[in-house]
């Protein structure tokens, strides 16, 4: 059983993000995660129900901030199925996990090259990935997963992304959504 962190952000295998920890239950989550091999990021509950899929993450780094908050950098390891979820007295959730296979790499198709270049610029600015990791931008699955993490899609779309079992399906879904998102932003900007 691993602790769960229900939050409205998406993180997928090999993705990185920083979290600011301030609630006592999530400070405990950090302590438990360091003993049990990580924790699971999942989407928030809906009608008291946890989603069935999340991403197991490891804590890569942590810092005590000047404001007293704990900042952790996490990296996604693998998508997991969640079952037998229980909530403890302090509100921290735990669940049994079963690993899902990570999706294979696919070379970036020509039609997505502009998205690869744009993503490289954004991720360089965020300073979360090493130069070597940024070379993965030529992997279409990695590209789709990083875009999925950056754009604030609705919960339903985030669940669709998490539940994809085929790399080609994930890539088409996410990259088409990115093009749609960019197109809407351009239309609003041009208006």
Summary tags:
single chain, 191 residues, alpha+beta, Archaeosine Trna-guanine Transglycosylase, Chain: A, domain 4, 5-stranded mixed β-barrel, 6 strands, 39% helix, 27% strand, globular
Summarize the structure.
With 191 residues, this protein is of the alpha+beta class. Helix content is 39%, strand content 27%.
Q: What's the gyration radius in Å?
A: 17 Å
CATH architecture of the largest domain: Roll
Strand portion: 25-35%
Please give the share of residues in helix: 25-40%
How many domain modules?
2
Estimate the global geometry from the Cα principal axes: globular
Order of adjacent strands in the largest pleated sheet:
1-3-4-5-6
CATH homologous superfamily designation of the largest domain: LON domain-like
**How confident is the prediction overall: mean pLDDT?**
88
Task: List the uncertain runs.
Answer: 185-191
Count of runs of 4 or more consecutive helical residues = 6
Structural class: alpha+beta
Q: What is the element string, with H for helices and E for strands?
A: EEHEEEEHHHHH
CATH topology of the largest domain: Archaeosine Trna-guanine Transglycosylase, Chain: A, domain 4
Main CATH class of the largest domain: Mainly Beta
Structural commentary:
The chain has 191 residues and is α+β, with helices and mostly antiparallel strands. It has two domains: 2-99, Archaeosine Trna-guanine Transglycosylase, Chain: A, domain 4, CATH 2.30.130.40; 110-190. It has helices spanning 24-36, 113-126, 131-134, 140-150, 155-163, 167-190; strands at residues 2-6, 16-21, 39-42, 53-64, 70-87, 93-99. The chain has a five-stranded mixed β-barrel with strand order 1-3-4-5-6. A hairpin with a 5-residue loop joins strand 4 and strand 5. Helix 4 (140-150) packs across helix 6 (167-190). The radius of gyration is 17 Å and the shape is globular. The termini are far apart.
